[in-house]
User: What shape does this take?
Amino acid sequence: MGLFDLSGDIAVLIGAGGVLGSAIANGMAEAGADIVILDLRPEAAEAAAATIIADTGRRALGLGCNATDRDSIQAAHDRILAEMGTPTVLLNACGGNNPRITVGGDKRFEDISPEDFRFGVDLNLAGGAFLPCQVFGPTMAAAGKGSIINIASVSAHIPLSKVVVYSAAKAAVISLTQFLSREWAESGVRVNSITPGFFPAEQNMKLMFNDDGSPTERGQSILTHTPMRRFGKPEELVGAAVFLASQAASFVTGTDIRIDGGFLSQTI
Assistant: This one.
């Protein structure tokens, strides 16, 4: 199991103040890493870091950071170097869907404004991978060691109905992951992605569940299309993240790991 040991690593997780990101952060801490939580909500980042310290005894720091603003990322990067050391793991979990960038009902694809399209791309591609990689990647490359993990989506592989801009931006995350895996391969930095299936979290609960806890029509459609016939649990993302961060994945770069209960394998 020493292959999966993250002792000595400093893992930075962006957008990890919520349920899924904090579960991965706790898993990396349990594997031995010191943790930095960056989130748009400083209080969420600080609370997640406090939980890690209490539960694992590892060093942890929570900072407010706007992943769509390079200056904000750079400020967080510089503070991490000063207070924690050189990061060796970066997990980019910033992103999400929004009514501004969805279609359905009376709203058609052509009704999405250029401003809203740019908003969706900014959130899910620029903030979700491009800008954090630009800031942290060269630091890792200069140190000769690093693992970058981008969070993609099943809709990056098969565009889901309604979420048109989100799907396009997440597909670009996978393409960027592959590009950077080539760009930094000889520097010692590996770049991979994880494709989660459907995991109930803060932003999608109303999409998937009624007030009484039963699945919505869309939630039931997801379950029907998932061979395992259930949603994912936050802790089920931890193993893949620890694997990609660790020396167990020392020859793994440019790949995408699907954790979707078989969703992308299902056809008619």
